[in-house]
Amino acid sequence: MTEQARPARTARVLVVGGGIGGLATALAVARRGHRVLVLERAERFAEIGAGIQIAPNGIHALRRLGLGDRVCATAVHMDELRFMDGRTGKHVVSMPLTADYRRRFGSPYVVVHRAELHSLLLDTCRRTGTIELRGSSAVVGYEQDATGAAVVLEGGGRIAGDAVVGADGIHSALRHRLVGDGSPRVSGISVYRTVLPMDRVPEEFRGNHVTWWAGPGCHFVHYPIAGGTSLNLAASWDGGLTEAFAGVPAPREQVLTRLAGLAGQAPQRLLRLGEDWKTWMLVDRDPVDDWTDGRVTLLGDAAHPMLHYAAQGACQALEDAVVLGDLLDCPASSFPRRLRTYNGLRRERTAAIQLIARRSVSLWHPAGAEADDRNAMLASLSATELHDHVAWMHTPTPLPGGPKAQ
Prior knowledge:
Elements: E1 12-16, H1 20-30, E2 35-39, E3 51-54, H2 56-64, H3 68-74, E4 76-77, E5 80-85, E6 90-96, H4 99-105, E7 110-113, H5 114-126, E8 131-134, E9 139-144, E10 149-153, E11 158-161, E12 163-166, H6 173-178, E13 185-197, E14 209-215, E15 218-225, E16 230-238, E17 248-249, H7 252-258, H8 265-273, E18 278-284, E19 292-293, E20 296-298, H9 313-327, H10 335-359, H11 361-364, H12 368-379, H13 383-394
Parallel strand pairs: 1-2, 1-12, 2-8, 5-14, 12-20
Antiparallel strand pairs: 3-7, 4-7, 5-6, 9-10, 10-11, 13-16, 13-18, 14-15, 15-16, 17-18, 19-20
């Protein structure tokens, strides 16, 4: 049924947050014939950060939005996920991502620059006549009754609609009102990030692979982005710091000192090439069963923020968006029931990934005999067994759950 054929079902959905999750939601909901207003705190719609890994489940969601082929055309297609012992520089195991993987999961595993993906979503929203984008609109709360919902703006303004979707990130103002679980959990792990032009990268570090160097209390990941013209560097240090911080400039010597556990010559050589490092404290939240209140719901990091170690944060936000869009193919009177269904469909799967992302630190950071045992375990796995291990996450169809959340 076309949009023009069903005006009686057209509703107004307010999306709070103009990041990847918010824009994907706007597209998914607009495709169901509704009008969407996206409210962004910043003056401009923009995205910070560098690389994003997108597994086949994320590509599938982008295809549902009509963007999968365009993302795949510009992204770097990974050939393998490579695990290295950063103490010795020795290769432990690789999970191939080529023919067998792509046949099994129906799509490649790709990496993109975060700004590239955001720009594609933003441009598509701008060309969609039923999506309005409004910056300088900080939302601090919401109100609702039996017939509609509204957001409350900083300064006291109010905008009404038929439903509100909070895609306003880990510090979500809507979550503060809806869930009320305080500040995010500080992990104690600092991540250092920078981007290196590929013409400065030694040949041994080039190639279409995501490489992890694991060391005692630290690890280092790198992979190509921006069509292969740059190398994304992300180094993690488990120093037990207790205060949250974000985007703080960090001197190279601090990075080298804190990643000294990577004693292998190769990772140290690449770390020394990095310039203009910035550092963030990694934060997340405990899973919750309920992130929906009547005509108001949360999505992406506002609903289920996770550490980046499962490389699924963006993929899960994209899955949220297409599931929510499918469910809102209905009149506004059915929104509360459909939002409750969305919450129920998504909570087990996202909670499992939140907790696996936390537990994966035990894979990256052991020392001594424990690290040797890890290496032996990983090296014993075949390509098929490695694919089996990630199948519940990477399978394109959003599943009702994964390993039972503990």
